[in-house]
Specification:
The longest helix has 16 residues, at 27-42. The chain is globular, with a radius of gyration of 15 Å. It is built from 3 helices and 3 strands; from the N terminus they run ααβββα. It has helices spanning 11-22, 27-42, 85-91, and strands at residues 56-59, 73-78, 81-82.
Length: 96
């Protein structure tokens, strides 16, 4: 996902992953391309090693079983800090 005008980050990524599934890719390959291979391709250091950005999602269920599980987010770590999701929802004025 990029900052393209009219692109809803997160949602559009999930749509791209669903399209990969429709094209016949298996969940494991889809997730690998979106999480492991993409940062390596652009030269970004990610993962659980020293110097990595430490940004990841904790999910309720395995996305390898179903890509729909990507919507069941339990918690978020962003740049080494846990995100307080309830505060994010109160800061979004267009949802009021």
């Amino acid at each position: 996902d990029s900052g393209n005008l009219g692109t809803f980050q997160g949602y559009s990524l999930q749509m791209e992953l669903a399209l990969m599934k429709e094209l016949g890719m298996i969940e494991w390959d889809i997730l690998t391309s979106a999480t492991y291979l993409a940062p390596r391709w652009i030269g970004t250091k990610t993962g659980f090693s020293s110097g990595a950005k430490a940004s990841f999602l904790l999910l309720e269920h395995s996305p390898v079983e179903s890509l729909d599980h990507l919507k069941d987010i339990s918690n978020i770590l962003h740049h080494g800090e846990w995100v307080e999701r309830t505060q994010l929802l109160t800061q979004v004025s267009f949802l009021d």
